[in-house]
Amino acid sequence: MNNKELNYIKENYFSDPAEELGLKLIYEMIDEVLEVEVVSENRRLLRERMEGAVLTLQAIPDISVSELGWTDVRTVGNQEVSGPARNQLLQFTKNIQGADLQDKLTSLAEFYNSPDSINLEGATPGQRIASALSYLVFYKTLTKVISNFNAASAGFNFEAFLAVLLEGAQIQANTGTIADFKTGDNTPISLKLYAEKSVVVGGSFNDLVGDLVNPQFSPHDFMQYVVVMKSFEDKTQGLDVQGDLKFFRFNFTLDNVADLILDSMDKSVVCIQISSEFIQRVSAGETDYDFGATLPAQENMSPEELEGKFIENFTELVNEPIVYTPSPAKPEIMLNLTTDEISHFMTNQLDWSKNDALFTPKQIGAEKRVLRGRVNINNSKDGAAAKAVDSAFGERGYDSRQLWAIRRAISAATAAVNADYSAKTLKTARAEMLAAPDAFADPQTSVEFYNSLTDPELKKRALLNTKGRLSNLQFDLNRGQVIRISENIGQIKIGAVYVQEVLNRMTEELNRSIFSIFQSVKIIQEGTYAFMAGGLQDDSEAEKAINASQEVEGKVQELRPEDNAEVDL
């Protein structure tokens, strides 16, 4: 035993008596944890105590489910600046292994089955724990996103969540694309989240054509659809929800779009019908012919354009004094909704241009359909509009009269859009020409002609001359059709109960790391006691204490990153 070693013990384990934390107090703390006097029994009981301990869901960092925070990606100069909530989530999700969504889903599914499957070559225990924590944060936050909101809001939040996972960004509505977000490599994705039994995937055919004719997500010239089907056990909600998310993926391309639309729901097959005149002219060699250019100016508007008119009407109506019709004697209702409140409601809860459940279908031709500009809001108390209003404003302290006033403004704003639309479009010469018999070839003939074209530019021109594009129609695919054309890219479990199962397995790993530190601390205690009891003569006891202290230092270093290493968390 040399002076250097003695000084090491003194400096590290014997404090100045004036200090609050001295050796005696340290020993008392250790004894308090161990709770017994016999050394061997101490170790046994501590091990049992730690092995019996479990981590709970509350131990996982809680990310605020704030869609506004996640989508706060603004440009300063040429640099995108993320909001704090998005940055917080990104710190965790960037540790999830995988090059794309499919790879990440595989990694996430494997982690559920075995947390040790996340192999970080050369990583310290601390780094492995940090990586595992990232997976747990993903699952906890995803469960909150999926379960704690109505359908429209959950879908919007889900877009934001996956955009962060793939290091991309959401895309603002009404920007001429059917995409909801883009990935870090600029892949455009239209995301659809549905209960497995009620899958209907679609959108504006006009926007889809625009994405294929004039791609805006270089270097990609396709539109990728990711369809997520949720299947939950009955009578579960919130973090108690239990079930699965199944992910499917397919691409619309210039080459396959006609076949996919031909295989869509009956009501949307008409979208791919091509102008008969266009087919005749192009077949005769007139490759620059454009039937659309011969039509009168387009006065009808797309669902997104109509939504803009609806929002204008709603904003004006909702902030006017409103008389509560069921009780006229009561004072007028003044809402004074802010621009931000209205914008948030329109984007996150109502989704007027895409949510067909808001409307009462109308008999149009042979079937009942939802065509914006021609259908009214479903005003039932359990309807989608009422639920959206309650979700957005009910928890903010708005009373029943105010909620009624907001619902009334939605109906009135929609009726105003319908009146304007009818006056401008339904009797126009353009509409009459598009509705003329034999104006368009039948779907099968149209698809055969389209697929016979070898020039990509001619295919683009053909899409611009389809009924769906010229008439601003919507297309839809049902569950069977989606599964038939899609690639199944993964399935993950959702629910706090599954996360807890992983936590229970992780507790064992954490205990092994932490218990070894407690064990070494106890050896320091024993060795130091024995060394002092022997009159500072027994070098072997001193060596025992020194070696144990070095073990503690080494274990702690394992659980923390190097000072000069990049810190992810």
Element layout with pairings:
Blueprint: H1 3-13, H2 23-34, H3 39-51, H4 67-70, E1 73-76, E2 79-82, H5 84-93, H6 101-113, H7 125-147, H8 151-165, E3 169-170, E4 181-182, E5 188-195, E6 200-204, H9 205-213, E7 223-232, E8 243-252, H10 257-262, H11 276-283, H12 303-318, H13 339-350, E9 362-364, E10 367-369, H14 384-393, H15 400-425, H16 429-434, H17 443-452, H18 456-464, H19 467-470, E11 474-478, H20 479-485, E12 487-494, H21 496-533, H22 539-558
Parallel strand pairs: 5-7
Antiparallel strand pairs: 1-2, 3-4, 4-5, 6-11, 7-8, 8-12, 9-10
Molecular structure report:
The protein is α+β, with helices and mostly antiparallel strands and 569 residues long. The chain has 3 domains: 3-60 and 510-554, no CATH class; 84-269 and 485-498, no CATH class; 270-473, no CATH class. It is built from 22 helices and 12 strands. It has helices spanning 3-13, 23-34, 39-51, 67-70, 84-93, 101-113, 125-147, 151-165, 205-213, 257-262, 276-283, 303-318, 339-350, 384-393, 400-425, 429-434, 443-452, 456-464, 467-470, 479-485, 496-533, 539-558; strands spanning 73-76, 79-82, 169-170, 181-182, 188-195, 200-204, 223-232, 243-252, 362-364, 367-369, 474-478, 487-494. It has a 6-stranded mixed beta sheet, with helices on both faces. Helix 5 (84-93) crosses helix 7 (125-147).
